UniProtKB/TrEMBL annotation:
This protein's UniProt keywords: Membrane, Transmembrane, Transmembrane helix
One Pfam family here: Anthrone_oxy
Protein name: DUF1772 domain-containing protein
InterPro entries, sorted: Anthrone_oxy (IPR013901)
Transmembrane segments: 12-34, 55-74, 80-100, 129-146
Amino acid sequence: MLNALEVITTVLVGLMVGVEFSVAFVMNPIFNALPDDSYLLARAHGGRMLGAVMPFWYIGSLVLAAVWAVAGWHHHGTGLVVTAAALLIVSVIMSVLLLVPINNQSKTWTPDNRPADWREQGNRWDRFHYARVAVIAAAFTLLVAAL
């Protein structure tokens, strides 16, 4: 049973890293190349779509890592799993404090109601997101090492 938990947790965290990596280094650069109105609408739509799914994915990954750490407490690699869970906690805190507030505003923007600093806010979100991708990638690496 522990082996299944380890594999499921690692795969789910790995997929999350892949999605967030794709947002940072594939989708957002594509959106950035669009004309302003199209860029704004694409980012707003992405914020709505991923904003509805990612909270469950982040919290679910954290819960699975915590269960793995508890269930495998006396097994090899538990320290790596605990550290990965701590990094996932950091990613949730970063999300709630830094990224979600910007996302909640930007997902409602249209060409008619965007604020004057909408590009700067998008760039700020991107910078925070790069850091979050690094944090969850490190967590994933630790989970893989703990297998």
